[in-house]
Fold this sequence. Notes:
This is Protoheme IX farnesyltransferase. By secondary structure, the chain is mainly alpha-helical.
Amino acid sequence: MSYLDDAKATQLAPRIPVAAPSDYFRLLKPRVMSLVVLTALAGILLAPVPPHPFIAFTALLAIAVGAGASGALNMWYDADIDAVMTRTATRPIPAGRMEPESALAFGLVLAMLSVFTLGFATNWLAAALLAFTIFFYVVIYTMWLKRSTPQNIVIGGAAGALPPMVGYAAATGDISLASVVLFAIIFIWTPPHFWALAIMKHDDYGRAGVPMMPNVHGPDRTRTEILVYSILLAPLGAAPWLLGFASPVYGVVSAAAGSYLLWLAVQVYRRREGDAARRASLKLFLFSISYLFLLFLIIVGERALHLAGVV
């Protein structure tokens, strides 16, 4: 066979995608992971007797890796719908930079590593909660709820709300009212946050066949649901202060931020046509991210200052 024949055969041979390290990093959903780390850290610092810093760091690392495993397995299973949605079409698998099997293996290895690391480093209640979180997100939410019901975000939000409970269990081997309250805040926050995005991206979800609330019950019903959950969230956000495990500073900030979030939800409810409706949904979506980060940052900051003996 001549050199030209070899070259032609090489060109015709199927190309195996070679994923870059950045593609594996993207599988981890780093923005989601950062929120998981922050909320889990709040759970750890709420412990009456916080663990040794090395144990706390190991627990946070394991929880972060578990969140990354969930993201990788989610992208593996959702590659078909990611390919038809503009928001997700550039992810490693639909973009052709990674084989689905690579993402699956990556996610499974990280999931097992995270659960067993957390179990050996802290306790098996925390490990069991982390394993349940991964299972709930991948199997219950991704494989079942996401494609079958417009309540997918509501029920599936439990997975994203569990990290504070995992963190508290890692520090204490137990579950407390404080960690359950933090779970509740994230759980109630999830629907208005994601439905604000779903209103803007309903065409994307329609093409993918995902039964999001705006696609099944319409944008107006979704706006009403957003308003209802925001009414519940505004006072719930102040619960850590009312129950005594956050300071009056947290109480004032959470009340102000919750009131502004509720005002934005009212604007989403009122503005239903054209660019005004889109801008209202975008403002609520973006502020909801800042809202949750702000509440948990204050809790983490206050607990850290308390442990340092500053307050």
